[in-house]
Specification:
This protein is an alpha+beta fold. The chain folds into three domains: 47 residues; 81 residues, no CATH class; 67 residues, no CATH class. Helix content is 17%, strand content 22%. It is built from two helices and eleven strands, in the order ααβββββββββββ. The chain has a six-stranded antiparallel barrel. Strands 8-7-9-11-10 form a five-stranded antiparallel beta sheet, with no helix packed on it.
Length: 241
């Protein structure tokens, strides 16, 4: 309110100065002095009206006491341990993913991972060194743990989407092989590596694919799926699409 009052003083004094234009020199000098004082008051009022800065953000607190519970967000650990992540607020600029599902069970390399279709990655949880820690399933330290979390990136890319190049192999995904072999690795359909095959569907009740020249892929046809096994699929060479 002080800022508004200061502006009113300036306007009123300006009017008085104009109205007394025929007055003697003393009145003019006094009007000029009062106008200068009013301007100083307005400037001071404007500075006083400047809003204060917002309070600093409170440190993140895990209120559910469960490491990577459903809907928790995470980012890379502050200690830079390879593959390790830690919980943080979802609006934290360092947050990279969100938990879609949390499973508590003893894990091995052959554990079947049961995740939603939109999952981009799986984080293993271990308590081998005391408190529970979490990290990428691609880093061996986290595989022999006590559970896992199915997660999705907060921003693109989403390798778990069909054709994205990661997670569970399904219709719409692309595969690549480095040589004359019957084993393939999933890659993005649009990426630096040109895929060899694209999964186009599943065999019918008689085990037949849509086309006679389609390639039938079973679980042992894939590399690096870390327990993410699935049904038999029909694939087609990319050049034959």
């Amino acid at each position: 309110m002080r800022y508004v009052r200061g502006l009113r003083v300036v306007v009123l004094l300006g009017t008085l100065v104009l109205a007394s234009g025929c007055s003697d020199g003393d009145d003019g000098a006094r009007g000029s002095s009062e106008t200068s004082a009013a301007s100083t008051l307005a400037t001071t009022s404007a500075e006083t009206a400047t809003p204060s800065s917002s309070p600093p953000q409170s440190p993140y607190s895990d209120t559910d006491t469960v490491l990577l519970a459903k809907d928790d967000c995470y980012g890379s650990a502050a200690d830079d341990t390879e593959g390790r992540v830690e919980e943080m607020a979802c609006d934290d600029p360092d947050a990279i993913g969100k938990v879609l599902k949390r499973v508590k069970e003893k894990m091995t390399r052959s554990t079947y991972i049961d995740c939603p279709g939109s999952t981009d990655d799986v984080l293993g949880v271990t308590d081998a060194s005391g408190p529970e820690l979490a990290g990428s399933r691609d880093y061996a330290r986290w595989l022999g743990g006590v559970g896992y979390a199915c997660v999705r990136n907060l921003k693109a890319p989403h390798p778990g989407d069909p054709g994205g190049g990661g997670m569970e192999i399904r219709v719409g995904d692309c595969l690549w092989t480095s040589g004359p072999t019957d084993q393939y690795k999933e890659v993005p359909c649009e990426g630096e590596t040109l895929p060899d095959l694209k999964i186009v569907g599943e065999p019918d009740l008689y085990g037949n694919c849509p086309r006679k020249d389609d390639i039938k892929l079973a679980e042992d046809s894939y590399l690096d799926i870390a327990g993410l096994d699935g049904p038999t699929y029909c694939a087609r060479h990319v050049t034959q699409q």
